Amino acid sequence: MIRTEFLCKSFGKLDVLKDISTNIEKGEVVAIIGPSGSGKSTFLRCLNLLEVPTRGRVYIDNVDITQPQIDIKKVRQNMGMVFQHFNLFPHKTVLQNVTYGPCKVKQISKPEAEKLGLDLLTKVGLAEKANVYPSRLSGGQKQRVAIARALAMQPEVMLFDEPTSALDPEMVKEVLDVMKGLVESGMTMAIVTHEMGFAREVADRILFLETGRLVEDAPPDVFFTQPKSERACQFLEKVL
Amino acid sequence: MLRFTSALLAQTGLALDFSKIVPSIPFILQGIGVTLAFTLVSALIGFSWGTILSIFKISNIKPLKWFADFYTSIFRGTPLILQLAIIYYATPQLLGYPIPGFQAGVIAFALNSAAYSSETIRGGILAVDKGQREAAMTLGVSYPLFMWDIILPQAFKNILPALVNESIALLKDSALVSTIGAQDLMRRADIVRAEKFIYFEPYIFVGLIYYVMITGFTLVARRLELRMRKSD
Ligand SMILES: Nc1ncnc2c1ncn2[C@@H]1O[C@H](COP(=O)(O)OP(=O)(O)O)[C@@H](O)[C@H]1O
Ligand SMILES: [Mg+2]
């Protein structure tokens, strides 16, 4: 589904990603963990070309999306993304946030998009907030709306960049629960997270990044009990 | 009220007689509509053109950026009354037909106001959270739609008070079009002065009208700003 080959990304002289090669199968859930500044966000953002890789390739369904002739807008429609700071549209209501993509990008009719939007809001438990503005929501509610907005494009993959890091502790669970629901529905997911318990519970594989290198790529049971690298040992000691 | 002021001023030795302009008051008052229409049309065209210029300024396409910067420096670096004169007196020479004063004024004011407002709008656009762009990009939204639906509404909300202030400044400066024959408040005061050979009365009268309008709008603008700050 997603494959990277020798993916490199530099910002000026700073090499943030170094030769990352991995793949994510359809239906697989991959958790990306590592110290802050190790390049997790940059890696995720290279997968939908929010950051353009300096070298290397990114294949989505065996198509190299780093090629210039690729219509990246089409590719992105198929890859939902959820951000740490939600990035909801503040001047649109909750429902308008969710229906904006389907209406304006996919050109689905408004009634149809609203039906889809309300279905999704029901799924994330926020149907009764459909007509309020995001400023009236709690952080956890905002993030659930952001998930619904991404799902409204009916993507095949969902990318999450620390979706619970900006939340008060008591709101983390409601967002993780929505994500668990997605996992159960068979969605392909790449999740950057600091929630080790969650990663261990839902992920099929853990990718451990350290200073821009993919240091470990293992199933959670292996990674959390017998990490191969010194770095991962140290990291786990700190966070567990 | 008028008579009272006149009496008062007469005592100071200034022989003002506002009763002389009473028959001309309806004629002068009609200038309010002209002045307001002139300001509104100039502001609307100016802000629209200013929006386009601001998008040029933040564009990656260098020539567009250069053009917008050059344009702004020209209109900010020369007197408005000169711009007005060039459009009213000089362009007909090129076109071969005259431009009515009102239209020439609108063109000059709109072009000039676009130069100033493009800077304000540009600031408003840059102040919109960077995350909005990423959210729109991941939905696959095209750049024009993104600008129109996501960025501009938020940018304009940010800078609404500044644009209202710019409109108020336009309203004040609109008196300049009297010099090219548009029948605005100022021009009507001039006409009354010339017909009746009275100076202070018509000028003070329109001065009062300008003052009330401008102070009123300024108050409204301040209210608006306060309310918006509260809603944030
Ligand atoms: N747009 C950018 N310009 C310059 N440096 C950046 C940019 N984005 C990220 N970086 C740098 O790249 C490194 C990795 O960042 P990031 O991928 O956000 O790490 P993580 O998500 O693992 O905390 C950091 O040192 C960060 O400062
Ligand atoms: Mg990050």
Description:
The complex is a heterodimer of chains A (240) and B (232). In chain A, 38% of the residues lie in helices and 25% in strands. Chain B has 232 residues and is mainly α. In chain B, helix 2 packs across helix 5. The termini of chain B are far apart. In chain B, 32% of the residues are buried. At the A-B interface, helix 2, strand 6, helix 3 and helix 5 of A face helix 6 and helix 7 of B. The structure holds adenosine-5'-diphosphate and magnesium ion (MG). Magnesium ion (MG) binds next to helix 1 of chain A.
Computed over alpha carbons, the radius of gyration of chain A is: 18 Å
Order of helices and strands of chain B: HHHHHHHHH
- How would you write the strand order of the largest sheet of chain A? 6-7-8-3-9-10
| Count of extended strands of chain B | 0
The helix count of chain B comes to 9
User: What gross morphology of chain A would you assign?
Assistant: globular
How many helices of chain A? The count is: 9
Outline of chain B: flat
- Low-confidence blocks of residues of chain B: none
Structural class of chain A: alpha/beta
* CATH topology label of chain B: MetI-like fold
The average pLDDT value of chain A, as a whole number, equals 95
Distinct ligands, ions and cofactors found in the model: adenosine-5'-diphosphate, magnesium ion
Number-wise, the strands of chain A total 10
Distance between the termini of chain A: 31 Å
Rounded radius of gyration of chain B (Å):
22 Å
Query: How many separate structural domains of chain B?
Result: 1
Oligomer: heterodimer
For the biggest sheet of chain B, the summary is: none
Report the major sheet of chain A: 6 strands, mixed
Class from helix and strand fractions of chain B: mainly alpha
Family (chain B): Belongs to the binding-protein-dependent transport system permease family. HisMQ subfamily.
Pfam families (chain B): BPD_transp_1
Subcellular location (chain B): Cell membrane
GO molecular function, one term (chain B): transmembrane transporter activity
